[in-house]
Structure formats: C-alpha cells, structure tokens
C-alpha cells in the first residue's frame, strides 16, 4: 500500500526558517544546509530560528533574489506584519522599484491595504519622495482618497514636488470622472 500524495500547500502556510548551524547529513534522506541558510518548511521542524515575515524582510532590504525565492515557495504576498503592513508597503517605503515591479506580477496583490497607522503603500512612497514608485502605484490603480489615522491623504504626505504633482494630477482626473458620472446620472434623470 503506497502513501497518499502530499496535500498541496496553501499560499501563506509555508514556514520560513534560518538555520542556526551547518548540518552534515548522515543518511541519504537527510538534507545538507549551512548556518544562515533560509529553509522553507511545509511541516514544522525543530531547532531552527523562524523568520516571521520573510517576504517583508526581503522587500525592506531590497533583496530581489530572496523575494523571488519566497514567492516561488508560495509565501503569501498580502500577509501583514505586526504593524499591519504588507511587503508592498515596505518595498515602497524603501524605494525598491524592482521589488515593487515583481510584487505587481502577483495575482490579487493588495494595493490599498492600510497598516495600523492607516498608511498605504502610496502614503509611504509619497512620504519618502519616490516619484517613480508613486507613478507605478497610480498606474496600477492605487487609491488616492484613503486617509491615514492623522486624516492625511498620500498627497498631504508628499515630500517633494514630483510626488505631489503626480498625486494632484491623479486626484484631478478622479474628480473629473466622478463629476462626469454625476452629470450622466442627472442627464438620465432629465430624460424621464
């Protein structure tokens, strides 16, 4: 009688560990690893240092190869850290455009997640002055109307003219679209 096939791993249920020491296998079914290696586990292991938010760590550091490794191993892309922030937030906060672009390739990436301070990835990019990332977020459809806990929009947090200009232009376009939709609605009412 053969063993049943392993259950598929759901995204985000992969545990990520950092090896505390080098391990030399003594039998063919054991795995060699070196101290500091990152190990992705679908079942719990012993004697390893767990990395709670590996995707966040990779995004914060701008470590593209580690980020790709996390994604390849199905680490959940929209997971939240203790501050309620996503990996996308940290990539935008750090100005890591290459990381942002890779995260954008993931299906169902959450652009508008607000952390415990109410800040979104767009708030972070505007505050840090990364106009290229603000532009990417806006092109992807990030909302400009979300206010943080201090009632500030991303525009209110913009620290340079380039970011402010992009946000004003986007808000102006959104306002015109809303106005246009309202006029269409009123025109429909008049036709009754």
TrEMBL record:
GO terms for molecular function: SH3 domain binding. InterPro entries: Ankyrin_rpt (IPR002110), Ankyrin_rpt-contain_sf (IPR036770), SH3-like_dom_sf (IPR036028), SH3_domain (IPR001452). ANK repeats lie at residues 117-149. One of its GO terms (cellular component) is cytoplasm. Gene3D superfamilies: Ankyrin repeat-containing domain, SH3 Domains. Residues 18-45 form the SH3 domain. Transmembrane segments: none annotated. GO terms for biological process: signal transduction. Its main location: cytoplasm. It is found in: Cytoplasm. The keyword Repeat applies. Keywords: ANK repeat, Cytoplasm, Repeat, SH3 domain. It comes from the Eukaryota. Induces bone resorption, acting probably through a signaling cascade which results in the secretion of factor(s) enhancing osteoclast formation and activity. This is Osteoclast-stimulating factor 1. It comes from Ictidomys tridecemlineatus.
């Amino acid at each position: 009688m053969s063993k049943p096939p392993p259950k598929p791993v759901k995204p985000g249920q992969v545990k990520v560990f950092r090896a505390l020491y080098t391990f030399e296998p003594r039998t063919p079914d054991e795995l060699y690893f070196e101290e500091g290696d990152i190990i992705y586990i679908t079942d719990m292991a012993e004697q390893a240092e767990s990395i709670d938010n590996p995707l966040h760590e990779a995004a914060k550091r701008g470590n593209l190869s580690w980020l790709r490794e996390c994604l390849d191993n199905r680490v959940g892309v929209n997971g939240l850290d203790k501050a309620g922030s996503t990996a996308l937030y940290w990539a935008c906060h750090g100005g890591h455009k290459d990381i942002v672009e890779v995260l954008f390739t993931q299906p169902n990436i959450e652009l508008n997640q607000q952390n415990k301070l109410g800040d979104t990835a767009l708030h972070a990019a505007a505050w840090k002055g990364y106009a290229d990332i603000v532009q990417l977020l806006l092109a992807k459809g990030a909302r400009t109307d979300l206010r943080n806990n201090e009632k500030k929009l991303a525009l209110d947090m913009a620290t340079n003219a380039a970011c402010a200009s992009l946000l004003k232009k986007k808000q102006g376009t959104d306002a015109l679209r809303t106005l246009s939709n309202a006029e269409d609605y009123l025109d429909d009412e008049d036709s009754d």
